[in-house]
Each structure stands twice: as structure tokens, then as C-alpha cells.
Amino acid sequence: MNIQSVLTTLPYLFKAGITPFFWGSHGIGKSEVIRQAAKALGDWKCFDFRLNTQADVGDILGLQDFEKDSKGHITSSTHYKPKWLEDCIDFCNENPEKGAIVFFDELNRAARHDMVGPIFQMSIDRRLHIWKFPKNLHIVVASNPNTDDYNVLNLDDKALLDRFCHIKFTPSRKEFFEYARVKDTSSSIIDFLVEQPTFIEDSNNLEQFTVDEYTRPSRRTWLNSVDKLLKLDMPKQEFQETLKGLVGTTAASSFLAAMEKADKPLTAEQVLNKYSKNKTVDGKKVRVKSEYAELVAKFKVAESGARIDLFKVTNENIEAELKKSEKAITKKKGENLVDYLIDLPGDVSASVLREWFILPSCKDFFYNNKFRQDELIAKIASARKKDVEDKEKEETSK
Fold it and tell me: What is the distance between the alpha carbons of residues 186 and 182, in angstroms, rounded to a whole number?
């Protein structure tokens, strides 16, 4: 991400409770962009820690001491609250409309490996020892890329790294020159670097670096991070980059491609409540199917073959909805469900009906209601007969 993308993305990550983990070479502007973000958010407080300059874990945690009872007997040990945390919490409590960012830079170059654990605790649990962080206190972590240019700690705990959104920070040269002019840098330097940008930095190793080494799709990430960002309606480009930092490039690309597909699986709501309706025509009640039934018919005869993948998603969503209640489904939902089952490919109907038939919410309807019962039974029987014939053919060919 470049600077503008970071400034756009950070508010969404903070709102979703996701801790960003920036990767970028030294001097590229990681600290500066966090300060810019704090200012852009409304003059938030910004605490900047360079972990390679902290001599001891006590610098971050606060020093230990003994607690004593009224007679002076030692009863337990505790940590004093570090001054930086006290200032941070006080600012957040005194300015609820604003917030604070605690920026831990160069995590994988910390002076001691035992300093890494507390940073993870603050990033993941939003607390340090017994002190809980206010909701408007946010952690940002950064590290140098694991390349030949740096002597770094090995951060290979996948369970911990899975809790972050990993971002490769690559500010554009245009942004660098704009920043240099704002800083009133000598024009001779800017002109020289504009003409010969290869002297800005050696970016060969950084170009080869990818955050995919630290990102893996997991159930927790999909539910706790991706889902929250999706519901926040992020700008498309920033969402795409953020998604890669959460689940990796391959999973992100597949998910984004699925979202762009024209064919979408039906929802449980569309099947149970909107699949068909009763209508009076010439004094007679008839069953009129909706556009959702037309989609099922389309998916059954798709050029690439029946869209079993879409039916599978719909059926899992329907089953989840049916399992939510012990109460019997309404007559309307039951009839829509039967209409849908009859329209599905026979083998698909047979497989899901076995599961749905015994659900508390469906049992009464399927046992006592005669709606299109003969058609449904005939469809399932035909599917089972075909299944037996296919198996016999397979055995014969063997």
C-alpha cells in the first residue's frame, strides 16, 4: 500500500478491531504515515516506540514490585503501570471523541525476544496485565522485511501472526517527493532524485518480499476480520489489498472472483419466504413461482453442467436456518421448501431431504402435510433408482 491507501484503510481496521502489521524497509516512512493518520483522524495522540532501542522488557511492561499486607508481609507481585500507558489511557478517557495510536516499530528487531510477547498481548487482547485498553486506543505494529538486509528475530508463530492484517508499505516516489517539498527540502536534492530516482533507496530486496509468508486463511480470520470489513463497505481497492493481508493472495483472489460472479447462490430467505406464492386465477388457486425458481432451473442446465456448487451453498444456508428453531416451520415456508426440493436435481434433493426430514422444525410438516407429497416421493425414488443403476454399471465395468 502507498501512503494514501494506508490513510484510507486505517480507520476501517480500527473500527473493525483489527491490528495492522506494516512491513517496510528502514527510513521508508512507516512512523511518519502513522503520525499523518493520527492527525487526519482528528489530532489523535500518537505514541511511537522503536523496539530496538528499548533495553529491557520492563521498559514496555513497567517494573515489578511486591505487594504487602498491613503487617508488611509480602503477599504477591505486581507490575507498576508504565507511564506511557497511563498517559495513553488518560488521553483516551479524557477525549472519547478522539483516540490514540500506540505504534510499535521494528518488532522483529527488538533488543530481546521476551519483548515480543507483551506486544502480541496488547495487539491481540487489547490489554497489558490487569489494565484493559479503552475502545479508542489502537495498536499498530511494524517490522522490517525478513531479507538479507536485516538481522531480525524469527517471527514464525502462525497462530499469533494470524491475528494481524499484514500490509506491505510501499509509498510511491511521487508521494516521497511531495513529502520532501512539504518538509522544505533543498530543491537541488529533490531535482537530483527526480532525475535519478535509483539513488533514493535500494529496493531490490523489498520488491521480492511478500506478506504471503505471514498470511494464511483461517476460520477465525474469515469470521472475525474479513466479515467485519466486508460489512463496513470499504473502498474496493483498499478492501482488496487488505484482504490479501488477512488471508493471503491466493485466497483473496478466489474470494474476490467469487464476489464478481454473475451467478449467486440463493439465500435461505429467498427459498423459504419468496420461492413461490399462491395466486387466484379464474377463481382457482394456483401456485406461482418466482424469479428464484427460474434461477434454479437455469442452474440445473448451465453450459458447464449443473451448478451443484451453488446448490450446496444454498442448501447449507437453508439447513442452518432450519436448525435455529425447535418450532415447526410455517405452512408457507414448508410449501416453498417442497417446491424448491422438487425443482432441484434428484440426487441433490435426496441427499438434503434425509437431513432436513428429521429436523424438529421440519418433522411435523413432512409427516403430516400432503402438499405435493407424491411428486416429492416419486422424485426421490427416481433419484435413488438411478443411483443404484449407476453403481451396478460401475461394478459391471470393473
Answer: 11
